[in-house]
Amino acid sequence: MINQFRKLNPINLVFLLAYTFLMRIAIFYELPAQVNFDFVESFNRLLIYIDLENALSPSANIFFATVVVYVQALIFNRVINNHNLLAKPSFLPGLMFITGTSLFMPFMILSPAMICNFLLIWIIDKFLKLSKSANSITTVFDIGMIIGIGTLIYFPFMAMLLMIFLALMLFRSFNWREWVAGLIGFITIFFFLAVFYYWKDNLSSFYQIWKPLVNKFPSVFKINYNDYLVLIPVAVIIILASLQLRENFFRSFISTRKGFQLLFFMFIVAGASFYLKPQFRISHFLLCVPPGAVLLAYYFSNAKKRWFYETLFLLFALSVQYFLFV
């Protein structure tokens, strides 16, 4: 399978679609009785209210989630190929993205984090363009606005503001205007939101938005480790990819090295931002899939021994299915 997706062949669009539905057989086989989907954060209901909880049945919810993931995989695949982060253009980023979004049942249901992955892929593209832009103030301002929109949908997405400064440190020489532009873009979204709340004479609700920022970091976690055994093959592939990346690191283009550094920090920030949400949900970690999928794709793009990487991916896909059914 890996060898097939190493080729940028249009027939892989069909194979990728089939693979997307195949990886979701478990949830289609045993549909949940009820699926809740909050399209936007509760503080934003006054501005946008879409009652999708009652509009979509569980089967419709999961079907549309599958279509959303497939579309995201294609967009993500194009972004990674356009920036030459892998050895050569392929469908591997899309394949790894779909596999990553199939790790857990909650990943397969429509959620705000899933919708925000569209925005995350968009800002990855814009971040990787920073080094190629003579004047990046407009780009950084746009990124700030995108993060602001994402925060309206899913509050922990606000943590991506930190990525603006990390990206500027990686790709640009210091320019205070660029550092301020991202914040202004973010604030612009919430300025108009505040005006709307003031217009509705409900400004007190606007202040409630920022309450999660004073949450204490959780000191106790209730974890069923059996639920996360599926991450063992992921960890193995990431270790192999890291070793391979280290071996080729200084032989890669500077932009490629910086791109992987950016994605590493994005993976950490996306994972750590879960504490901004009072109710922990595993679907939050969908935000870790795009940066993580690039590293997985990097290994399979550069691996030499076909019998080994094909077997490794087969075991990976089968383990995902096994733990989904079990």
From TrEMBL:
Assigned keywords, A-Z: Membrane, Transmembrane, Transmembrane helix
Superkingdom to which the source organism belongs: Bacteria
Membrane as UniProt keyword: yes
Signal peptide coordinates: none
Regions crossing the membrane: 12-29, 62-80, 92-123, 143-168, 180-199, 228-247, 259-276, 282-300, 307-325
Record-linked InterPro entries: DUF6427 (IPR045625)
Record protein name field: Beta-carotene 15,15'-monooxygenase
